[in-house]
Amino acid sequence: xxGAVVIDRWLMAPGPAVRLAxxxxxxxxxxAGYLVARLPVLLDMGGEAxxxxxxxxxxxxxxxxxxxxxxxxxxxxxxxxxVAFATGVAFRVCGPAFAVALLxxxxxxxxxxxxxxxxxLLVLHAIVISxxxxxxxxxxxxxxxxxxxxxxxxxxxxAAAIVTVVTYALAGIAKLRIGGxxxxxxxxxxxxxxxxxxxxxxxxxxxxxxxxxxxKVGWLFTPLAVATLVIELGAPLVLVVPxxxxxxxxxxxxxxxxxxxxMFVVFPYPLALIAFAPLFRLERLLPAHWRGxxx
Length: 295
Known about the structure:
Blueprint: H1 3-11, H2 17-37, H3 39-43, H4 68-87, H5 91-110, H6 117-130, H7 151-179, H8 187-202, H9 211-215, H10 221-233, H11 237-240, H12 245-263, H13 268-271, H14 288-294
Helix pairs in contact: 2-4, 2-6, 2-7, 4-5, 5-6, 6-7, 7-10, 8-10
């Protein structure tokens, strides 16, 4: 059996509609909450000085910043669409519309210098799920869904899982590409922590209380740097070795928690565990009688 056939069978293996629906709800609820939490920053976008504007991604063609009112409208519409996405209302229209709107808002923010990879991961997941029949169960006004497992409910979650592990693998490759094996001695990681603390202090903020004590324990950064690479480069293994999923997710979560604690750099999407959700049987989060009805 050829490798292509094996991959195709794995990708198109049937799955329950409720599992896909739970992930849809997770994305919609997280996106709505995240956008609301960042509302002051997002509503301040638009009308930037041209010197501050550097369009990226799908907005590469936009030479001048948009008026503030236009960006504010886009942000508010995206929040409304996120709620519709989560509830499954008119999903064939609202699903793709939400993915496009979220792509626009996050790309516009990135065009102001705020490049956040977890934003990109959220958007990619939204795009994948918006192209699937993710609202055939657990949508507003209807709890039950089609009986039986189907390939159309399985491939979106596997595609989303691939997107997740690829982002981690690329992060590990980037470390080796930029710094080579020098990353392994821990100096680069130590410099990152020191830079974050110094930057916060210079800008009038408060650096992590853990940063300075860690600087005095230089040897600590070597095992942490090695562990980071192992977690990131080892990510693709969880697709082929299911037993590794729980320990890998636990280690990846601890890595993000450590980054937040030492550098005050927060990655909310993986910290909320939603970035890793496609790897698991999400229907188990529901009451047993819901699982039975939904399937």
